[in-house]
Amino acid sequence: MSEAFSLTVEKVVAGGLGLGHSPDGMVVLVPGVLPGEQVRVRVRQRKKGFLNAELLEVETASPDRVTPLCSLYGRCGGCDFQHASYPAQLRLKQEILTQHLVRGRLAATWSEASAMLGEPMPSPRSLGYRLRLRLHVDQLGRMGFHRLHSHEVVAVGQCPIARAAINRVLATMGSSQSLADLLVYTRELEILLSPAEESCILLLDFSRKPRPADFALVRGVVQELAGVSEVLLRVEGHGLFSGAGLAPQLPEHAMLRLSLPVGLDLAPVALTVEPGGFYQVNQEQNEQLISQLLDWAKVSRKERVLDLFCGVGNFSLPMARLAGQVTGMDLQGSAIRSARRNASLNGLDNVIFSKMEAAAGACSLVTKGERFDLLLLDPPRGGCREVLPRVMALAPGTIIYISCDPATLTRDLGDLQGLGYGIEQIRLFDMFPQTSHLETMVLLKTV
Ligand SMILES: C[S@@+](CC[C@H](N)C(=O)[O-])C[C@H]1O[C@@H](n2cnc3c(N)ncnc32)[C@H](O)[C@@H]1O
After folding, report:
1. Which atom of ligand 1 is the closest one to the Cα of 376?
2. Does one domain contain both 169 and 236?
3. Catalytic hit among 70, 76, 384, 404
4. Residue 360 C-alpha to ligand 1 middle, in angstroms?
5. In which domain, by residue range, is 269 found?
6. Is there a catalytic annotation at residue 363?
7. What average pLDDT does this structure show over 319-332?
8. Are 20 and 137 found together in one domain?
9. Do 387 and 275 have their domain in common?
10. Looking at 16, 32, 65, which one is the last position of a domain?
11. With b meaning 16 or more CB within 10 Å and e meaning fewer, what string describes 312-351?
């Protein structure tokens, strides 16, 4: 039997875990708790220098504690902040970001770090915001999320953080016999909402090359499920298949469509995305991110912008409405195809998109002697350390760094400070309510 004891939660740290001490003074990390709470925990794992524990009982609850509204809370591995009120979630995230700034030596003290941060930007929707949902499929064809710390599939009938149109599909998916037949060969399935049409596309990771009978099933799902406009099968090494067969060029109706109001009296930007490519999960918060970006960037027609992780042009295209010229690069071919299509859809001819790995792209621009007034960095979780040695030659003025991982962000900000950039503004954007994930935007200028 593992050891159980009571402790006081001193703070909540990265990963949304509460930190306290065991009776013999070891650091204990435990999920599902809030600062100030007295809780009873049981040790799950002994690690070097700390213990991982599970929550047995909340003995004294924080006033910020709320009853999680999802029946899967604590079982599905998502939404690890659902036990906190929404204002408390924002406060906790701001504190976690502050801890990162101190630990990354970007600030000498807690109060210096707090003073660096702007007001956190709440999400316009704290529930019902997600535009896409990924489900696992087990060997019996059952769909759901992975149980916490396991690969067992937990069936999901509703997901409170997903948009209503996704939940309508979730609630009826079990009734489609055609889908059940396809799931036998499916490992994962994504429900992707196309917000401009309020309809969903199902993207199935299919384990074999589809046969004619599978295409009939694909067409059957669209007929059987209201709210599903398209089903696509993605087969590793073979690409995407629609009900009509291999789809090297996706038909227009198989694209996701978004319209981004960008403020500043500018016309909205229309975006199309090939299913499977990256797009921001929280549409309204993405709009606030873009509006902050344009406000900090203050670009004019005389200026050039470089966006090294441009995706489908989510930031590059709003920028191109104001800047003289924008260059966007991304590793993913489908993202660049979408970005080019989006540029012409919006009549923007001052933007060039290239399929390039960021470090290689930065190197080649330096070799050509290209210079930019503003550099946008929005890398994946791992950050972009490899790019940083080139940035002073490329953009000696201003950088805006958007990050979904505060640990790699603070590491990269340390490097940028070493290169001569100073942090002017840092602001947390709550892109992922009910979870401990953080999105941060930072404005840097050479000092
Ligand atoms: C966090 S997403 C941001 C995309 C875009 N800025 C947006 O807001 O939708 C990161 C993007 O970086 C791309 N990416 C990942 N690694 C890369 C690399 N080494 N070089 C260039 N692009 C990369 C991904 O394909 C993805 O589109």
Report:
1. 6
2. yes
3. 404
4. 14
5. 258-446
6. no
7. 96
8. no
9. yes
10. 65
11. bbbbbbbbbbbbebbbbbbebebbbbbbbbbbebbebeeb
Residue among 256, 258, 294, 309 whose CB has most ligand 1 atoms within 8 A, to mutate: 309
Residue at 181 is within a domain: yes
Distance CA 341, CA 337 (A): 6
Q: Within a domain: residue 79?
A: no
Atom of ligand 1 nearest to the CA of 309: 12
Looking at the fold, whether 209 and 314 belong to one and the same domain comes out as no
In a domain, 123, yes or no: no
Q: Is 279 in the pocket of ligand 1 (CB under 6 A)?
A: yes
Tens of pLDDT, residues 380-406: 999 999 999 999 999 889 999 999 999
User: Binning pLDDT at 50, 70 and 90, where does residue 1 land?
Assistant: low
List, in sequence order, the alpha helices (H) in 348-405: 358-367, 391-394
Lowest mean pLDDT: which of 44-53, 71-80, 173-182, 378-387? 71-80
DSSP 278-324: ---SBHHHHHHHHHHHHHHH---TT-EEEETT-TTTTTHHHHHTTSS
Indicate whether 145 belongs to any domain.
yes
This model's pTM is above 0.90: yes
Looking at the fold, whether 306 and 428 belong to one and the same domain comes out as yes
Report the separation in Å between the CA atom of 267 and the middle of ligand 1, taken as the mean of its atom positions: 25
Distance of CA 58 from the midpoint of ligand 1 (Å): 41
269 shares a domain with 221: no
**pLDDT tens column, 2-60:** 789 999 999 999 999 999 999 999 999 999 999 999 999 999 999 999 999 999 999 99
- Cβ 330 under 6 angstroms from ligand 1: yes
